[in-house]
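Colleagues,

For the teaching module next term, I've prepared a clean inverse folding example: a structure given as tokens, and then the sequence designed for it. I'd like students to try predicting residues themselves before seeing the answer, so please don't circulate the second half yet.
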């Protein structure tokens, strides 16, 4: 098992070079709810990664949880409520998502895309996927809409971080 892990690490380093750890770190940071790519792209800048590496890894990492959320969150929430597991938390998350769903439900695909594209806390891929799942929107369309929104948000954050901060600190 340890040799397999070492082989995977060696493979990743072979592809990405010395920046492999940074790239993996950025990818994982962008998977964290609330932080998402709004936090991972500036971290990539501070770590000295090129803008395109930060952007691509952040988009990939931010999108990895989306299919899981779209497919399973409603069933997980139902199970948790049925068995009285963190019921207040589940109700709070559902209420928070439904409060924000007004903007999304009107335009569905474009509404969801715009909601996710706005680079503000609480408007990212996690919340967008939760809203889409709770509204029982088409999963494929929701995924594509969220991907487009994440790409737009990532581009905005990248331009702000690498453009403005790059100009100031170089």
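(Answer key — instructors only)
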């Amino acid at each position: 098992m340890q040799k397999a892990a070492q082989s995977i690490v060696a493979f990743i380093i072979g592809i990405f070079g010395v920046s492999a750890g940074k790239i993996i770190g950025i990818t994982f940071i962008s998977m964290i709810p609330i932080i998402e790519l709004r936090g991972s792209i500036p971290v990539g800048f501070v770590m000295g990664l090129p803008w395109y590496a930060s952007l691509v890894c952040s988009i990939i990492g931010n999108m990895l949880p989306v299919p899981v959320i779209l497919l399973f969150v409603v069933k997980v929430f139902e199970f948790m409520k049925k068995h009285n597991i963190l019921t207040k938390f589940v109700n709070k998350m559902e209420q928070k998502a439904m409060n924000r769903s007004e903007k999304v439900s009107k335009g569905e695909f474009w509404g969801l895309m715009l909601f996710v594209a706005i680079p503000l806390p609480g408007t990212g891929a996690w919340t967008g996927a939760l809203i889409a799942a709770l509204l029982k929107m088409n999963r494929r369309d929701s995924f594509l809409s969220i991907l487009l929104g994440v790409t737009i948000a990532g581009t905005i954050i990248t331009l702000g971080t690498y453009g403005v901060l790059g100009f100031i600190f170089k």
